[in-house]
Amino acid sequence: MAPAVGVAVVQGLARWLRLWFTLSDPVDRRTYFSHGLALMILKYAIDAAAIGLVVGRFWSPLDYLAPPSVLLRHQVPWQRPEWLGWAMAAWTLPFVWIGVGMTLRRAVDAGQSAWLCLAFFADAIISRIHLRVLDHVKALSEQR
């Protein structure tokens, strides 16, 4: 009986990897939400553990939700050591691929344009624009 359980686990993992890393399977609303939430929790847990182990500081969910540009300005711990920032950036790439791919397939499955997958990047774009505006306002106030 034990080998059958092992085979089922491997088959389940293979199904998840195919869902996450290929563009072949459709993504319904429930799958999109449940996998997105689970992957977000997994990514936060591993990122927070890495910060905790390497830097010795707890990384709260609020720290996690701040855009990287804000974190860089405030000299948060993930800049030290330098390699940690690069490692975390590399670790983020598969999650970006999964997020964009699943968003694309969810849009198509819902009868919408595949271009909606670009909305996955909306938060990063809006945050960057917001920081540029704040920089401009600060520069104007310093000139007075």
Explain this structure.
The chain is mostly helical and 144 residues long. It has one domain. It is built from six helices and no strands. It has helices spanning 2-21, 29-55, 61-65, 68-73, 82-109, 122-143. Helix 2 (29-55) packs antiparallel against helix 5 (82-109). It starts with a helix and ends with a helix. The mean pLDDT is 83.
Largest sheet: none
Q: Helix tally? A: 6
Assembly status: single chain
Spans of at least 5 consecutive residues with low confidence: none
Domains (count): 1
Number of strands: 0
Rg estimate, integer Å: 19 Å
User: What would the average pLDDT be, to the nearest integer?
Assistant: 83
Strand content: under 5%
SS-based class: mainly alpha
What fraction, in percent, of the residue positions are helical? over 70%
How do the strands and helices of this protein lay out in sequence?
Layout lengths: L1 H20 L7 H27 L5 H5 L2 H6 L8 H28 L12 H22 L1
Keyphrases for this structure?
single chain; 144 residues; mainly alpha; 75% helix; flat
Summarize the structure.
The chain has 144 residues and is an all-alpha fold.
